[in-house]
Amino acid sequence: MRVVIQENYEKMCKWAADYIAAKIKAHNEGPEAGRPFILGLPTGSSPIGVYQELVRMNQAGELSFSNVVTFNMDEYLGLPKTHDQSYWYFMHDNFFDHLVDMKPENINILNGMTDDPEGECKAYEEKIASYGGIDLFMGGIGVDGHIAFNEPYTSLASRTGVRNLTTDTRIVNGRFFDNDPEKVPAQALSVGVGTVTDSKEVLVLINGHNKARALAATVEGGVSQKWTCSALQLHNGAIIACDEAACGELTVDTYKYFLDIEKKERL
Ligand code: GLP
């Protein structure tokens, strides 16, 4: 696992956007350019700066999304696309609507209004598989270490499915719902931990003091379904991009170790 520690949120986002852009460009210039680059994407406040930088690059003509197919991590069950807290709305408002060459038919987001949640999730897995899997999944994590909406004790082998949200998560996400946890949907559709770790590469953003325990659990703790993000330890291409504020619970040795081995830029 790589842990790339950046001074602050802005630098973390710039690093992550540069990494994603480099991967898309390398793909489009390489032997596999005939197939699309498959990019997994998260919602939440953590990736907003990354989206802003990717949009800037795209609008400046530095990065094309014309050969990119996206799959989002999750969606609240019961929220229509038009709800300003649906992840469909978030993704279009913060990212897709600003890209000059993203093809709408290449955007995949679980449908929170489906009449058949199980069928929706099965079809999502099948669609990912039809592209040969995800090349790079960018993610964020919750304060309890959940990746996508895979709450503590979700199987580390889980696939896309319906998830019950914990009270903790509804309290944390209540900030987007008039500070009322009761207004946060109780269920969501989410890719599984296994769906994420099946990706060729996983890049997870972890920033801010409130994520310090989760970062330590991801990096230093044992692999455990209590912290579903810890499954990344078993992935051969996992990268954590974090800021200094999130490093507070790492041991000094761990912190120094990653600063040391990441000294040389390895894009
Ligand atoms: C939600 C999402 C997660 C996201 C998490 C963290 O629970 N389902 O995918 O990683 O929020 O959000 P934030 O980046 O705002 O801390």
In short:
32% of the residues lie in helices and 17% in strands. It is an alpha/beta fold and 267 residues long.
Task: Write structural notes for this entry.
- There is one protein chain.
- The protein has eight helices and ten strands.
- With 267 residues, the protein is an alpha/beta fold.
- It has one domain: Rossmann fold (3-Layer(aba) Sandwich), CATH 3.40.50.1360.
- The strands form two sheets. A seven-stranded parallel sheet has the order 1-10-9-6-2-3-5, sandwiched between helices. A three-stranded antiparallel sheet has the order 4-8-7.
- Helix 1 crosses helix 2 (48-59).
- The model has no long low-confidence stretch (mean pLDDT 96).
- Residues 42-46, 73-74, 140-142, 148-149, 169, 173 line the site of 2-amino-2-deoxy-6-O-phosphono-alpha-D-glucopyranose.
- The site of 2-amino-2-deoxy-6-O-phosphono-alpha-D-glucopyranose (GLP) has 14 residues, from helix 5.
Which CATH class applies here? Alpha Beta
The percentage of residues in β strands lies in 15-25%
Given the helix and strand composition, which structural class is it?
alpha/beta
Mean pLDDT: 96
Measured as a percent range, the helix fraction is: 25-40%
Query: Unreliable segments (pLDDT under 50, ≥5 consecutive)?
Result: none
Q: How many structural domains are formed by the residues?
A: 1
CATH topology value: Rossmann fold
Number of helical segments with 4 or more residues: 8
